[in-house]
Amino acid sequence: MSDNEGRRDLRMPDDGEVFAEVTDMLGANRVTVRCADGVERTARIPGRMQKRVWIREDDLVIVDPWDWQDEKADIVHRYEQSEADQLRNEGHIQ
Question: How many CA atoms lie within 13 A of 19 on its CB side?
Fold first, then answer.
């Protein structure tokens, strides 16, 4: 039995992307997220995710902050609960 049993390689944030936790559902495909860099942003759920990936409060996501408006971002990925637990256990997020 190895230490890596049950471990999966997970998508990590690319340059400019940050981990975030969904704190509030705003409607109209928008949510409030608390980012790992300490900033609270309004994030947009892109059309390609709207009907395929259900995002709820307390979900862990990766967001791509906008260059021209730092208080806004786009959601690029959502983690399953087991994936979020794995990231916390490995020390990637608090």
Answer: 16
